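Troubleshooting: if your tokenizer reports a length mismatch, compare against these two reference records.
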Amino acid sequence: MKWKSFNPIGVVILLLLFLLSCEKTSVQPVKTKSGVQGRSLAALTAATITNDTWWTANGGIMYNQGGYIYKSGSTYYWFGVQYGGAYTYYKTGTKNSDVSFVSINCYSSTDMVNWSWVGKVLTPDNDHFVSSDWLGRIGVVHNPTTGKYVLIINYSSTTYGAGVAFATCSTLTGTYAYNNIQTAVTNVYDNVPGDQTVFVDDDGTPYLVFCDAHGRQHHYVAPLRTSDYLSVNAATLVCKGPSLEADNMFKHNGVYYRLMSELAGWSSSHTYWASATTPLGTTTTPVVMSGTDPSNSYNSQVSFVTPVTGTSGTTDVYVGDRWSDFSGNGTGYYVMEPLSWSGTTPSFNALTSWSLNAATGTWSQ
């Protein structure tokens, strides 16, 4: 067989054209912190939050009302309660009064938008946690001395009374077991705490933030017992005056902000805010947060605020409970909205959808 004449210059030109074409059409990989090849971290974590919808995880509806988000490393864990009436409302759209306790569930996410099912961390035990008990407004903390994770629960039972319930687990997302119920907190009006959340300061100190259960005109902060976080220490009255509930606290630029709602039952409400320079300091007089009035906090009741911090800043994410199963407040059980700041004054953005970049800590409309 006789070979045809060979032109090496032509071959080189063709090869260069082929390589240039590949460079233009391919996605350029970069090394992430985990060493995995992929697109830039910022591109991976920019995602759109959409309200007025049923939030899902692994194709199933998310049931985690009255919840709390715990961050471990770069992962957010959303704990919350599943009530008996939640599934019924999702299927029928008819509000009901079934507040029976089904479970406390956990979901995880690295971008606060796309969530994965983790599992049930607490279920009825036929003793201290039964289906007829009220469990809600939970928090999760990790005690460095015992190494235990502690689930802190607003609790009411016809057998054991009302107060704060504690359950523990050796792992964050494992099965929690009953530890104790505290039915009175020192310095609290009428002894019993009302709506509550947990706040953990930058130095790791955890506090219970709550109002009284009778009238809700007294607003408190109390540290947890240092040795094990299984008891609430004496409370400090930080605000007295209007009847407000759904007390929660977060920190922004060194200032402690307390958000609260009106007493509206299961319905939505304006959001009030007040601030203090220390966790136990007396707050400013609560005022209605700008932006929450026209839509009643986008048809929700404030639950808590999660700061999302990244390479370029921090977005304070308002998380509100819609309590749709008991109020008929439309589609979805939660809303997430970004807070804006003018100096030391926060304002609420009532948005149907918006973009959050957890890697940079920024948001856009």
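Reference record two:
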Amino acid sequence: MSGSTAAIGLLPTYDTVGVLAPVLLCILRLTQGFAVGGEWGGAAIIAVENAPTGRRGFFGAWPQIGVSCGLLLGTGAVALAQAVSGDAFNTWGWRLPFLVSIVLAAVGLYIRLNATESPAFLAAKVEAERKQEAQKAPIPVVFKHHRRPLMIALFSRFAEAGNYYLFTVFLLSYVATTLELPKSYGLVAVMIGSALNIAMIPVFGAVSDRIGRKKTFFFGATVIILSAWPIFAMIQTGQQVAIVLGVAIFLALGHAAVYSVLPAFYCELFPTNVRYTGISVGYQTAAILLAGFTPMIASALVLWTGGTCPLVAIIVVTTLIAAGAVAAARETKDLNLATIGEVSALDKSRREMSHS
């Protein structure tokens, strides 16, 4: 991922190579996307499987601050690049943030080279070797034997996968174009909201270790549903304080609560041998369905209807879908990660006995 990010900073311009320039940019962006698809699952599993007993929610929440950290760091990097390059920003200054990402690549490489496999993975590997079991491709196993947790993982993201980008991407254009307010109103609101989001995600992760993943998720879902209309009402006042407050409510209370529990909750849905595949497919499929299209759909609906009621409806419906998915799962915070597969096998044995 870091390599493709840095390569964007080296891209030739349209004036130099013509249409090849945007084609290369699309290829690099796709490479970034594929890399993220694998990176998140690995980060979540390392954090959760290595967490102390009773702290999986807290430790698993830390990878979740990455998106909002990226927003803050990206905004800061662009601002710094503009200050350094001045009027030359559109010529070469925009390249600086991408090239500097090589430093982050070095940090990431160091972490990977020094990371060890989790006890849960090593135990599963030893057990498989003891039984002399052949390793099966995980994707077919997930779709054949773990469809229910996969669907729970996919639909439980509906509360935040698209709605997050309503308040961090769509909001910027809505404030500046539809409301005709200074661009800084939306930018400041997103930056403050992102900072609060970063602070609250670990807090809600820790809360989920005490009261459970489901209760924590339901709290966040309730906040999102009940605050959807009031937040847009605050944004439409055109007052900067109201806009900041509205975005802060969503990111610090609603989004942070539902998003923080996902790594631990997902890891507790799948046995060790397919955990990486199960959580990654569920998480990233929802991102494909919602994250990329929601801001575009929101813009079209606002142009079509002239109001934000359809956006409120999207938020409420998607969050209800997510809440329903989580409600279909059992509470997982006290499960032993190493025995999740054994429990599934026991349930299967009981089903087979009942049919015989």
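Descriptive notes for reference record two:
- The first helix runs from residue 2 to 8.
- Residues 2-120+137-355 form a domain with the Growth Hormone; Chain: A; fold (CATH 1.20.1250.20).
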